[in-house]
Amino acid sequence: MKKFIFTLLTCASFLMANAQIGYNYAQYDFGLSGAVNSAHTDFAKTGSSYAAQVHFTYNYSPYINYIAEVQIGGLNGSDLTAVIPGSDYTFTNNYSMVALRAQIQLGEIIDYSQSQFKNAFKNIYFSGGVGVIYTDLTVNEPTLGPIESKGSNIFIPLKAGYEFKFFNSYSEPKVKLDIGYQYNMVLSDNFDGITYGTNKDAFSQIVVGLKFAIGGYTSYRKSINY
Predict the structure, then answer these.
(1) Are 126 and 160 contacting, i.e. CB atoms less than 8 angstroms apart?
(2) Burial degree of 61 (CB within 10 A; 0-12, 13-18, 19+)
(3) CB-based burial of residue 40 (10 Å sphere; 0-12 exposed, 13-18 middle, 19+ buried)?
(4) Which InterPro entries does the UniProt record give (predicted)?
(5) How far is CA 201 from CA 77, 96, 184, in A?
(6) Any residues with CB less than 8 A from the CB of 119 and at least 6 apart, and which?
(7) What is the band of 63 on the pLDDT scale with cuts at 50, 70, 90?
(8) pLDDT tens digit sequence for 31-59
(9) Of 12, 60, 134, 207, which has the fewest CB atoms closer than 10 Å, so is most exposed?
(10) Of 77, 69, 79, nearest to 35 (Cα)?
């Protein structure tokens, strides 16, 4: 009798799970990203610089996401002629940072179930948050030599992009490819070692990353996969 009841419960669980095919999603993702950086500071020219990220995501829904991330990277610039004519100053800033962001995707607010056109837009997202950036700064002028300093600043990350979702055999989002543009507003004008003008320093990033579903499966109110 116990075996019979166990079999019935197992079958019921299987049927319920399969009845939700296309609706289920993982509440937790782990991800890795790479980025190309561009500084927006008092220096006129920016050299090539890069960053790497590790992030953890809590998915309140498939389209509302809360992201905690850690990043390390570098920024550099040269040519201070706008500030000090004829100068050969350069700066290099090796940084690490932690941030929290809230993200919403259009799939949360549009009905894409009856339109392939709308379905193509459901994974567009917008995101914002707050973080702390820790800097290891070197400002160099050929006649004076390097001047080094370390510090920290609050910054505001703003991001927009597109998240490509790849589904498993149960139509659950299993892997996500994230391509985005992030603008980081540093609440300081000394991020590059030079204080000039009224604008705060900032840097932008082209970010490409992967997210992997790691568990906590639950159901959404509508099908995630078109």
Answers:
(1) yes
(2) middle
(3) buried
(4) OMP/PagP_B-barrel (IPR011250)
(5) 12, 16, 9
(6) 112, 226
(7) very high
(8) 999 999 999 998 888 888 999 999 999 99
(9) 12
(10) 69
